[in-house]
Each structure stands twice: as structure tokens, then as C-alpha cells.
Amino acid sequence: MDWFLPEGLFTLAMVGSFVFGAFALKLPIAIALGAAAAVGALAAGEGFPLRHFVEGTFGYLDTILIIATAMIFMKSVQKTGLLESLAAWVIRSFRQNPLMLSLGLMVIIMVPGMITGSSTAAVLTTGALVAPVLIKLGVPVVKTAAAIAMGAIYGMIAPPVNVPAMIIGGGIDMPYVGFAGPLLVCTVPLAIFSALVLVYPYLKKGAGDELALEEELKRMEQAPLSIRLILPVIVLAVLMTGEQFLPDIWPALGMPVNFLLAALSALLTGRKLNFLEASREAVNDAIPVLGILMGVGMFIQIMTLVGVQGFIVVSVLALPAWLMYLGMATSIPLFGAVSAFGAASVLGVPFLLALLGRNEIMVGSALSLLAGLGDLMPPTALAGIFAAQVVGEENYFKVLKYCVIPGVVTAVWAIVVILNANTIMSYLP
Known about the structure:
By secondary structure, the chain is mainly α.
């Protein structure tokens, strides 16, 4: 038992109090994380280390600013009608090509998650937008919800904004740089697989209601797709690519400023937009996520202070290789039932430390994919529950049933990526 004491007890105290607070007391995740950090500090005899709590709270300040400004951008774009218009264009362009239409609609579902780092944002925006279209195209209701849930999770993990990857990288002081390629490797094959399994077979049959579909498309086209309408997306793409490909001459404004400038350009689309009101709504929507990040920062800070992080790493390294990977593929998604961000911090960071022999960026990307699966895990199952709501299905377990195969394939793919991390990175630019 010497190997277990005292850090093992501190681990049980922190994780146990977090789970108890989140599930039994039903505390907000942010408060449960902060309370668990305080329990860990007290158990280790550190008292109430105010400096560490403050440092931890602001440890993810960059990520917080990115998410807040990304939400403002997304809300501004939504208010202009771009999302509806873009979805209608995809449907009309590929209506006669079921394969391309399936893939195009999956991309549409993913976009808000890619921008905001939130699966919930994807489900409640483009997911809610695409849901009636998919149903009218002949896709069963529960499979429509499953496709939306999976697309939202893949969008959450895809670049440019991946919050779990930011948390995992931040836990070892690894900057969020160079993740675009690895995250695409993690998500693109899975998004294609899910579209082919859940959507394509029904679009191929062509059994939808054409009249109802046409009415829906006309409603979505109230804001005609034009260069002016897509201006915010163009501005954002130029700002981000310029910074990446022309570093010597392009000013490094940072992602928060890029998002804000792109959001402000929505005022030039010709559509009525109250920017201050949109910003207020966006920040209100983002507050729960921002609070979780503050709690995660405190939790990681205290984990490091009392030796919990090191204990988990050493314990993981002592496991046989097959058991470590099995544990990784199951424990991170299951812990993600409480919070994908919490799973990234509590388990993602230690697993990354245990796998430092492999390319850290690729491993961190794959671990973030496993953390994202937490949004399918009951009882929280955020992606599954909200996807069920947008299609009007009361029993979200019916939706989760059709997410099982894509979910298992996702976990297996994450492990495959980790095992071949160095090889895959050698082929990426």
C-alpha cells in the first residue's frame, strides 16, 4: 500500500468529491470542480492556498477569451441568416447526389462546434436547422438526431477551436499550435463514416416529401446567399490563414481579435443586426462553459500541487500496455459524462504525460476526441439529449442506441491514432 499513500487518498478525495457534488448534490460543474479542488487541498494539509486557486482560475484565460469571442462571431453570423441560407444552398446543389448531400449536411452540422468548441452550440443551431430537412428527406427521426449528435461532437473536436485539446495542452504548458492537421485526421474519417451509416442510405432511397422540403427551403432562403452575406466567414478565413502562412508580414492579432473583427464585419452584410444584443446573448450562452474552464483550471492546479497528477501518471505507466489503452478508451468518455472538459483535465492530462514518447500534438488530439465522446454518456449526454429535443423525441436513449456503433468506432480510431501518432505526424505538413 505504500505506493498508494498519500497521493492515492488525495486522488480519491478529489475525484470522489467532484463526482458526489456533480451527481448527488447536482451542483454546477464549475462549482463541483472548485469544491473538489478545495477538498484536495485540505486533505493534503495545504489549507486554502488562495494563490493557487487564483492562478488556476485564470490558467485558461486565453481559452476563455477564444470561446467568448467565437460565440459572439457565431451568434452574429446566425442572426444574419447565413447558416440557413448556406444549408439551403448545400441541399439544392447536391439534391441529386445523395453521397455529397450526406457529407455536406454533416459539415453544416459540424460548423458551429468547430467555431465555438461546443457540441451543444452545434446541436442547437445548425442541428436544429438541419433536423427538419433531414426528416423531410426521408431520414428516420431518431437517426436524424443521432447524426446531429455525432456531427456536433466531431465539430467540437475539429479545428480551429477544440477546448478539450486546449485544456490537455495547457496542463503540460503545450501551446495550442499545430493542431489543425491532427484534429482533421481525428475527425474527418469519422464524420464521413457517420454520414454514410446514418444519413446516406435514406437519401439514396429518395423517399422524402419533396413538397414539404421545398417549403422548408424557401423559408431558409429568406436571406439569399451572396458574397456580402458570407463576408464574416471570408474575413475570418483571411485573418486566420494570413497569420499562419504569412507570419513575417501579417500582424499576429490572436484568435480572440480575429473572431471579434470577423463578427463586426457582419454589420456590413446588409442584414439587420444589433451587434451589442447579439454579443450579450452569446456571452450569456457561453457563461456555463467559461465557468467550467475556471473550475478546471483550479482543479488541475491543485492536482499538481498535492501530487495527484503525478500519482495518476505513475499508476497508468505501471499498467500493461493493452490495459492502459483499454482504460483510456473507456475511462475518459465515461468521466466525460460529467463534463468533457473535466475528463480532459482529470484524465486527459495524465494520459498525455504517460505517453510522452509519442507525438504530443497527435496524442493530445486523439485524447480530446475520447473526451468529446463524454457528451454521449448518460446521465448528462448533452449532445444526445439536445439532439433528441430538436427532433421532438422524448426518450433520448432511442437516439443514443444509434450512436453506439459510431461511438465505438470513434474510440477505436482514437486509440489507432495514438498508437501510430509519430507515423501519422510524419505525413502531415
